[in-house]
Amino acid sequence: MSTRALMRKLEDFEGPRLVPLRENLFGASFFLMKLLPARFMLERAAEQGQLKPGTTICESSSGTFGLALAMLAVQQGYRLILVSDWALDRHLHRRLIELGAEVTIVDSPASCGGLQQARLDRLQMYLKDVAGSYWPSQYGNTDNPLSYAKVAEQFLDRIGRLDCLVGPVGSGGSMSGTARYLRTLFPDLHAIGVDTPGSVLFGQPSGKLNLSGLGGNILPGNVDHSQFDEVHWLPPVEVFHATHELHRTHGLFMGPTSGAAYRVAEWWSRNNPGKTVATMFPDEGHRYVETVYDQEWLEAIAGWASPLPEGPVTVSSPKEPMLGWSRFLWKRRSLNEVLAVTAM
Ligand SMILES: Cc1ncc(COP(=O)(O)O)c(C=O)c1O
After folding, report:
1. How far, in Å, is the centroid of ligand 1 from the Cα of 171?
2. Alpha-carbon dihedral of residues 178, 184, 186, 188, nearest 10 degrees?
3. Rounded (10°) angle between helices 64-76 and 90-98
4. Cβ atoms 167, 175 nearer than 8 A
5. Count of CB atoms within 10 A of residue 240's CB?
6. What is the CB < 6 Å shell around ligand 1?
7. 328 membership: H or E segment, kind and range
8. Do the beta carbons of residue 56 and residue 77 sit within 8 Å?
9. What would the mean pLDDT of 144-162 be, rounded to a whole number?
10. Cα of 96 to ligand 1 centre, how many Å?
11. Is the pLDDT reported for residue 1 higher than 80?
12. pTM, whole model, 2 decimals?
């Protein structure tokens, strides 16, 4: 089998199922969203001669991108070194080992940039030590957002006109890439990014993050701020409740970043009748059975039993302290533009 054919073996897993959630609201439910950018990045790297038989792939990942790389690397015979942290649960860890990945865990945060920076520092050591190694670099590689042209096409084929796209933001690839493509046909598309307090992606002061895949302590190059009309920040407790609601109401057993996107998309859809909305659900719930889907674990979280707000509080600056679900009208501006006019 050619390298290209080998890479395409998992292609059927890449696309989302499009699930109608209510009138004009669709969930794009992925088995593992990161398979799409991972396959695309490796394919392009092979075409450009950066990835050859025997190359070692090195990457920093707290979960789903690493799993996607491991699934692809084992098929194609590449060695894979993954640098991860606490967010790597033991089931996923076992799965990565089963797939032949070499996993290294960093446990102390860097003084600036937290665990994410500590992972990148360790990664640099591997890239230096392992001759000819290749770093896909999901946070900065422009092939990450480019790969989502395929998702935009699937939305067009199966839903048609879209008024609003909602999704969680981590590396920024999925939302920036999908929105950019959809806008070539629907320039008025309203794009909503979902983040969490303490994440620097949309201007919050850096803080402790408890949601793997959502937000970050380092700003990735692949977050294209000028694509976003609106940004919402959801604290973990609200995300976990929403994840359960998605499961109980629609039978969709998804991870917490899907719950976060669902909460915001459902709210926006209710408040904008007649508009067609699609929302990204990036991974399934299996990884979170011992956490987000475990009642005892949830009850130990401060605020778990407190009443939830019906909707977000609209804030006048993304730098404000955010104790609950918050929303800011970003209006497709750059981060610098927003920070300059909302200086506190
Ligand atoms: C489970 C999960 N959801 C959402 C995201 C965010 O997607 P993106 O990196 O395309 O912004 C990630 C990113 O790693 C993720 O792992």
Report:
1. 6
2. 90
3. 10
4. yes
5. 24
6. 63-65, 168-175, 213, 255, 257, 282-283
7. strand 326-329
8. no
9. 97
10. 18
11. no
12. 0.95
